[in-house]
Amino acid sequence: MKFTANRKTIFEALSNASKGAALKAMIPILANALFEANAETGRIMITCTDLQQRVNVFFDAEVAFEGKAAIPVNKLLKMLKNLKGADVTFDTDDKNNTTVTCGTTTAVLFGLPPTEFPEAREIAPETLFSIDVKILKDLIKHGAYAFDPNDSRSHLKGALFDLQGNDIAVVSTDGKRLAKATHTFTEPFAEAKQYIVPPFALAFLQGLTGDKVSITFSEKQMFCMAGDISYSSTLVQGNYPAYQRLIPEKCFYSLKINAETLLAKMQTLSVVSDDNPYISMTLDNEKIDFKSESISNGIITDSMNITPGAEQFENPMTIFFNPAFISSALSACGGTGDFYFSFNSEVMPARFDFGNGVIGIVVPIKRKGAATK
User: Fold this and answer.
1) Helix or strand or coil: residue 300?
2) Which label site among 50, 224, 311, 353 has the fewest CB atoms less than 10 Å from its CB?
3) Using the 8-state DSSP alphabet, how is residue 364 labeled?
4) Distance CA 178, CA 170 (A)
5) What architecture (CATH level 2) is domain 127-243?
């Protein structure tokens, strides 16, 4: 294999591909990037994989000889970053050694046989759709923050992509909170399907650029194509819980609250709540009183006026929340503008409506003596 291409182009392509490489490769070939040169198309494909995810990146080059080479990805990245020339030539011999030439620098990197590199898995598509990259990234940002990556329940270690009718919903939960973001397409899906996307795949999707991405789901895999990048990932197996049961459809109480104001108060109250992870919110028809207290750290109190639009509370009502859960919901949705905070009692799940199909659910902390409605 021999080709020449722009150094910055190669570095950018390898940087994107390396997101799929094994960080601590127990199998030596997984620490390598597979280069494949095609003389007919004048294109190079770089592939990295850790066996759970696989990234392919394509770029243009002047291809002298077709072929394949497995080159240590981290060493090559460091070298390309520091080289000063405009173009780089790669020349691989029959012993899997690649000579890299750029300006006055010549380096020989010892690789492995490309035949050892894992083959791509076949995918039997069940669902295929195309979506704006920005819309997808917003769905993940607003709907995928509420899972716990350390949860012992493997089916909750990721975000659910729930495809029903014309809607795609990205949902996450750890049982104590829930996030859901929905986008509506003009055309319906052929059938309702649910897929659990793992954290590393969500992170890769969040890093996509460009305008459109096509996504294909099979029973156990996800495949994406965006511009010169293709990506595949295993899916989390298991049955996702019936999350709709946690979402209150109708709420007796509803307050319009400014997100920026509430987020600032949550962050302030959290200063002393590290060893006692809850705060109290006492609501009446005019204001909310907050209190955070800790035996070892101190006490913080605060308040904010509210405009419920009607006299809703016959008597003040106190609810206990984990402030970190409220902060994460507000932060994921930008922490600005107004939203609706709705609930039915001191112990039932509270609903945060941010508009545009984005909601958050936080389950109050039950304290001894808490009343129910």
Assistant:
1) strand
2) 311
3) P
4) 11
5) Roll (3.10)
- At residue 309, the pLDDT reads 54
CATH number of 2-116: 3.10.150.10
Per-block mean pLDDT, blocks of 10 residues, the chain (373 long): 97 96 88 97 97 97 97 96 94 96 95 96 88 97 93 90 97 95 95 96 94 95 96 95 92 92 93 82 91 89 79 85 94 89 93 95 78 42
Are the beta carbons of 11 and 80 closer than 8 angstroms?
yes
Parse the chain into domains and list their residue ranges. Answer: 2-116, 127-243, 248-362
H or E element in which residue 266 lies? helix 259-269
Contact partners, residue 113, CB within 8 Å, separation at least 6: 70, 96
SS3 368: coil
Q: Is-contact 54 235, C-beta < 8 A?
A: no
User: Distance of CA 140 to CAs 332, 344, 358, Å?
Assistant: 10, 28, 11
What's the CA gap between 94 and 80, in Å, rounded? 23
Please give the structure tokens belonging to residue 261. 């104001």
Dmax of the chain from CA atoms?
Answer: 84
**What class has domain 248-362?**
alpha beta
Residue 46 and residue 171: Cα distance in Å, rounded?
Answer: 33
- How do beta strands 67-72 and 62-65 pair? unpaired
- DSSP readout, 203-246? HHHHT--SSEEEEEE-SSEEEEEETTEEEEEE-B-SPPP-GGGG
75: exposed, middle or buried (Cβ count in 10 Å: 0-12, 13-18, 19+): middle
